[in-house]
Design goal:
- The protein is flat and about 100 Å long.
- The N and C termini lie far apart (about 75 Å).
- The protein has 11 helices and no strands.
- It is mostly helical and about 300 residues long.
- α4 packs across α5 and α5 packs parallel to α7.
- It has a domain at about 50-170.
């Protein structure tokens, strides 16, 4: 009789015990995750000179293979996320193409010649839109790969800088769309007063390339900060080489600028020059942090 009552009681309380088990597992997962994140953001790596690290790698190549395997996993996750975001952008690719074509009157102003031309444009826009959405996660995977070898301060700044990657990229895209395209397109479409009917492939290829490379150029301050944190560059060197930097910026602007007129080139050079001097400030901040770390 007692065993029968016990079985009945276990049967009645089974749903409640199952719910309690689920909540306990969730609590354990959150607790373990919190401890892992806390240790990840507070534990300092062992400082080791670069020659010693290289010597150990040559003596034990298996350690390098472990790092390569970890890099493969991070790249695989980033690629999967890129595929997901690109698939989501398929549903909005037509609206995005229409938005890109607004400076010339919308998607109706484009005229296709080849049969597969609209499909190629559709895929290109979907891929670049998916890359823009996936950019923060791609940066996060890169940070996860590099974080074990960074100091706590650098890890935290890298984690904070991940949203900045998207912000700087989007700022470059918006600058190109609202300032460069309205300047360049009237010149290109009315050059020598020859009527021009833009094709989807040429127009979208031109616009997306311009938006993409200007967006990448806007990442320059973050790249300089990372290089300064690692000791490859410093603010003093960047300040001394500003003349050379102006020449390089002028060459880059000439390559990016879609037209040959000097006004469009100056429109491209102005933000690049501002970004360069902003990079000097970022390098100075990184240099001071690195000096304090070395002194400690």
């Amino acid at each position: 009789m007692r065993n029968r009552l016990r079985r009945i009681w276990r049967f009645i309380t089974a749903p409640f015990r199952f719910i309690f088990w689920i909540f306990r597992k969730i609590g354990e997962w959150f607790s373990n995750t919190y401890r892992t994140i806390k240790a990840f953001l507070t534990e300092e790596p062992e400082d080791e000179p670069l020659p010693d690290t290289f010597a150990k790698t040559m003596e034990n190549p298996a350690g390098l293979l472990e790092h390569l395997d970890a890099l493969r996993k991070h790249l695989l996750r980033a690629t999967i996320f890129l595929i997901i975001t690109t698939s989501l952008c398929f549903a909005f690719a037509t609206q995005i193409i229409d938005l890109l074509a607004q400076p010339i009157g919308g998607i109706g102003a484009l005229q296709a010649i080849d049969v597969t031309e609209p499909l190629g444009v559709f895929m290109r826009v979907s891929l670049l839109s998916g890359f823009t959405l996936a950019l923060p996660y791609i940066a996060f995977e890169i940070w996860l790969f590099a974080a074990p070898g960074l100091h706590v301060r650098e890890r935290r700044f890298g984690l904070i800088a991940i949203p900045l990657v998207l912000i700087f990229f989007v700022a470059g895209v918006l600058f190109s769309y609202f300032f460069m395209l309205p300047t360049a397109l009237p010149f290109l479409l009315n050059f020598m007063e020859i009527p021009t009917i833009p094709r989807p492939s040429s127009y979208v290829g031109f616009v997306t390339s311009l938006l993409f490379w200007i967006g990448i150029a806007f990442e320059f301050p973050l790249v300089i900060y990372v290089l300064a944190s690692l000791g490859f560059v410093n603010a003093r060197l960047l300040t001394q080489q500003w003349r050379l930097a102006m020449v390089i910026i002028a060459i880059a602007a000439a390559m990016i600028t879609p037209t040959i007129d000097p006004f469009s080139m100056m429109v491209v050079m102005a933000p690049l020059i501002i970004l360069y001097f902003l990079s000097i400030g970022m390098a100075a901040l990184a240099g001071r942090a690195r000096s304090r770390r070395i002194a400690a």
